[in-house]
Design goal:
There is one protein chain. With 112 residues, the protein is of the alpha+beta class. The protein is built from 5 helices and 3 strands. A 3-stranded antiparallel β-sheet has the order 1-3-2. It is elongated and about 55 Å long. The N and C termini lie close together (10 Å).
Length: 112
């Protein structure tokens, strides 16, 4: 079995944010669409058990950190100001949403 999360090049967040998409990272060597995952699984003799946008539950504080560290300087400044006006207890609130990744579960072809 293979369980992986991969950058989802088809994600709405990528289309909306363009080059400001936080998944654009040096350590990401490839960005995946559903078609490229199908090609990868065929080349490696895997078959998908599940392929869907990965939903995460992340603290608001973490999301603000991401906003402060990526993108246009004005956007980073906006997130910095958001941190200043957000009540501390609210920073621990967890936001559940798809944040631009795939959840892929696959198994080797011919293996039960």
């Amino acid at each position: 079995m293979l369980v992986a999360t991969l950058p989802n090049f088809s994600a709405l967040s990528r289309r909306l944010l363009g080059n400001l998409w936080p998944q654009y990272k040096v350590e990401h060597l490839h960005y995946f669409s559903s078609r490229s995952i199908v090609r990868l699984e065929e080349a490696a003799s895997f078959t998908s058990v599940l392929l869907k946008p990965h939903v995460k539950k992340l603290p608001l504080d973490y999301l603000i950190n991401i906003g402060e560290g990526f993108g246009h300087p004005y956007l980073r400044l906006l997130f910095g100001q958001l941190r200043k006006v957000t009540p501390r207890p609210l920073l621990n609130t967890r936001i559940t949403a798809p944040f631009g990744e795939w959840l892929w579960i696959a198994k080797k072809v011919g293996v039960n």
